């Protein structure tokens, strides 16, 4: 029988099945952070259950950590407590922790791939919805709730219904200035935020094949925003080259053996998907969102739809302070955030630095650059990007989730617009009353320099 990439990885991890019911899926890697793990550790202790396989768990501090003065004691009481609890729990149970100050600390979905912890053909989970990021490696990766975190702690398995399969094909040549973030925002704007509900999505076509691993991670990261359980891209030479030589990747002969197996994972010719979409790359342009979910996106040259009468649509526009039929071009913006598990890798910052080199941010703009990990921060410095950002008036922070989720100190003030490279634009996502406009790193950089939303395609040769 012809199998999809998803089928191959899922089926090889099924430990047991309930007749006409869920399956017991083995989990290769469990990533944890300071926000969703304390309750799960407590549950284990209350029930006197030991951690089954601590060596398959990796922890870091990212969500609620400050991005300034990380060498000093944390001031915020909640953040301080969460980070201390994570440290104690990891020490007590023998779990590897990359806490504040560690050279490998960073956003969990940036840190694990760059260290070679993420590898093709794995099953990976984390108490965070954007775990789908790791699917860029041909990995089944998805977010889980706190009770499921405890389940994996206790058994290294999960009881799950197998999702249906979905494939999104994008073929053709992308226009200049169109980045992977634009591709995924375009897809979600076309199929909606519920199209993937109940499905695991595979991205196929030459556009994804030609993307770097960083670009693929950006796409898979936002699979959850179209309702999918996760997203995957078949591993290929680009994947193998990225993984090779990483700190925790297989080495030498072992690596060659793994590659031989990874090459068997791509979807078989003729395999059938439960649902399929196809798009032309030529139709994709730089994107911006105008509403309060990631599906409310338009091309930079387009206007907000004028023919929708839905109550939630009206409510969304009211929150954002926009009108039907309005263009977002030249809309003044005072906050720009370049970071998050969607766009805080070195490739993203190279793109930003390339655009802003020799330019100055607009006086009205507060522009934040937040690397996704200590390793990315080190690379920024090594490549001389620090000087570029500082000369342009951008503020560089230390690694963490930062202004993506308004959980730490990097919040956007109420009523202010923020062009953000993050993944969600829900009401209050970046702080109470904050208004988030999602965009690519290039669009965000252009907004910071011009002080308003700009059509980047008009500035490219």
UniProtKB/TrEMBL annotation:
Cofactor note: Binds 1 [4Fe-4S] cluster per subunit.
Ranges of residues in domain Aconitase/3-isopropylmalate dehydratase large subunit alpha/beta/alpha: 7-451
Enzyme class at the top of the EC tree: lyase
Keyword tRNA-binding: no
Catalytic activity, EC: 4.2.1.33
Binding annotation for [4Fe-4S] cluster: 341, 401, 404
Cofactor: [4Fe-4S] cluster
PANTHER family: 3-ISOPROPYLMALATE DEHYDRATASE, HOMOACONITASE, MITOCHONDRIAL-RELATED
Free-text function comment from the UniProt entry: Catalyzes the isomerization between 2-isopropylmalate and 3-isopropylmalate, via the formation of 2-isopropylmaleate.
Protein known as: 3-isopropylmalate dehydratase large subunit
Organism: Neptunitalea chrysea
Name of the gene this protein is made from: leuC
């Amino acid at each position: 029988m012809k199998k999809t990439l998803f089928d191959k990885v899922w089926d090889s991890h099924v430990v047991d099945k309930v007749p006409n019911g869920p399956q017991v899926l083995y989990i290769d890697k469990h990533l944890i952070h300071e926000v969703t793990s304390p309750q799960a550790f407590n549950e284990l202790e209350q029930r006197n259950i030991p951690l089954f396989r601590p060596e398959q768990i990796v922890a870091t501090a990212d969500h609620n950590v400050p991005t300034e003065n990380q060498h000093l004691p944390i001031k915020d009481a909640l953040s301080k407590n969460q980070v201390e609890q994570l440290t104690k729990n990891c020490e007590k149970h023998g779990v590897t922790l990359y806490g504040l100050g560690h050279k490998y600390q960073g956003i969990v979905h940036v840190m694990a791939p760059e260290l070679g912890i993420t590898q093709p053909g794995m099953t990976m989970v984390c108490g965070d919805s954007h775990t789908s990021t790791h699917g860029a490696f041909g990995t089944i990766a998805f977010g889980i709730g706190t009770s499921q975190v405890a389940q994996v702690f206790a058994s290294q398995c999960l009881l799950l219904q197998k999702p249906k399969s979905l494939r999104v094909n994008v073929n053709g040549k992308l226009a200049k200035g169109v980045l992977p973030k634009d591709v995924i925002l375009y897809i979600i704007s076309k199929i909606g935020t519920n199209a993937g509900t109940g499905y695991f999505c595979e991205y196929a076509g030459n556009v994804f094949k030609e993307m770097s691993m960083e670009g693929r991670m950006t796409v898979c990261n936002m699979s959850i925003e179209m309702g999918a359980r996760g997203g995957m891209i078949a591993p290929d030479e680009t994947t193998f080259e990225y993984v090779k030589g990483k700190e925790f990747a297989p080495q030498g002969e072992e690596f060659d053996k793994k590659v031989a197996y990874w090459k068997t994972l791509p979807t078989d010719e003729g395999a059938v998907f439960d649902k399929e979409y196809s798009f032309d790359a030529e139709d994709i342009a730089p994107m911006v969102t105008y509403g309060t979910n990631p599906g409310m996106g338009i091309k930079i040259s387009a206007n907000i739809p004028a023919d929708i009468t839905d109550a939630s649509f009206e409510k969304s526009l009211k929150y954002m302070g926009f009108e039907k039929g309005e263009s977002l071009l030249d809309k003044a913006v005072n906050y720009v955030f370049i970071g998050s598990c969607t766009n805080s890798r070195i490739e993203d910052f190279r793109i930003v630095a390339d655009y802003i080199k020799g330019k100055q941010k607009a006086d009205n703009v507060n522009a934040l650059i937040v690397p996704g990990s200590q390793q990315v921060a080190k690379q920024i410095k090594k490549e001389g990007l620090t000087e570029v950002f500082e000369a342009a008036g951008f503020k560089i922070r230390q690694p963490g989730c930062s202004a993506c989720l308004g959980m730490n100190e990097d919040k956007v003030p109420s009523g202010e617009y923020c062009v953000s490279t993050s993944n969600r634009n829900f009401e209050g996502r970046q702080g109470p009353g904050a208004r988030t406009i999602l965009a690519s790193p290039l669009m965000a950089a252009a907004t910071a320099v011009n002080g308003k939303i700009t059509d980047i395609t008009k500035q490219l040769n």
